[in-house]
Amino acid sequence: MSSHGEPDSDWNEKKVTGGTTSPASESMHTSASTAPSQSNSEDPRREERAAKAQAISEACKGGDIQTLGALAVTEGGFLSDDLRRHAWPILLGSSSSSDPAQHNGTIPAMQSASSSENEKSEKSEKGDGSDQAWQELPRHRDEDQVRLDVDRSFIYYPDPNDTSKADLDHKKTELSDLITETLRRYPYLCYFQGYHDICQVLLLVLAPAQRPSAMARLSALRIRDFMLPNLAPAVAQLRLIPDILGAADPALCAHLSQTEPFFALSGTLTMYAHDIQSYGAIARLFDVLLAREPVFGVYMFARIVLDRRAELFDTPANEPEMLHSILSKLPQPLQLEELIRDTASLFEAHPPESLRAWRSRISPASVLKTARDARASAAQSMRDGERYFQAQLRELQWAERKEQLARTAWSYAVAARKRARPLGQGPHPRRPRRRGRRVL
């Protein structure tokens, strides 16, 4: 078993302790295998897996993000961490020139043309302290919270039964360094609780030299909405869920009409890394979340809700707290392959542009729109990410100003009404009593 723990799916790699090969990588090389030989006719599943591994390899060599996106949705995703170390940086548009073989000694490095261009672009951009060691950069305002969250990391994976305390402490140090470097090099980003859950997945999969660029680009170009000063853009994403439910299942949408979609915040905010406890499952899920547009994660939670239809109808609609409690926890076990396939179908049936909330609530500078096309997102620069961030920040500041003006206007209106009342009279003054004797 690897230090990550053995993945659940037999489509994923099963490494030996300290080993350097996986079924996927073996299929791409002519080196002898330690496993007993078996003909393809006797094992069609192995033949299918080998063919898919070859397709992933070829797509990585050509920087073919569209093909990688299609392969990520199919069963098993990218099959192994060996292949993920090539595919993920390409999907994120980060440099893949650092040889992942330094990490496990298996596959020669593959570099796409787009990632090479991005590398040159990022090096030419100033303002991120790229020529300076990150340890020498000014301290980020959120580093105290980072330390607290890192102390609580790696709860489920690597397998605590197979990981020594020294190894775990080393992982936590690596995680702290990765997060801190990202925040110091791009200090406009705001840390959020759950960010460390995302980072630890990339840390466990990618080679050390690949991590900083991949994490920076993921932060600025794909989860930027969560790294603003408040969660308003994240909440705006959740407003898509009722629209998706309304399009796919109006009756269920009506049943949940009294329940706010905040039940999906943890899942969407952390790319499900906070809620999924299996390393094999979360690595496989990241295959599709990195390959598809960011809004795919919102559709996935809507699909989870749709799949729990019978359970939800057993709870009265006028008990939103109970419905929230049910929906805030992912179903166990989570049928991941089926969920991914059904989410893709839901996305095709009801694309974002057909949703009213997409048009009225999602900012043009939101990652849901700026990364609507995975290929365009991979070609964006960190400078693009900062420009979009500043545009969103101005929108948030203007929204806060309008809210403040509205509160001020309301307080003035209330004060004016109070001043307009005659002295000693309450909100509903009585009619003056008639004086003199009553005439019958």
Automatic annotation (TrEMBL):
Bias type Basic and acidic residues, positions: 1-16, 42-51, 117-129
Rab-GAP TBC domain span: 78-293
Compositionally biased intervals (Polar residues): 18-41, 94-111
Keyword line: GTPase activation
Region (Disordered) location: 1-65, 94-142, 420-440
Extent of Basic residues compositional bias: 428-440
Superkingdom of source: Eukaryota
InterPro entries cross-referenced by the UniProt entry: Rab-GAP-TBC_dom, Rab-GAP_TBC_sf, TBC20/Gyp8-like
Protein name, as recorded: GTPase-activating protein gyp10
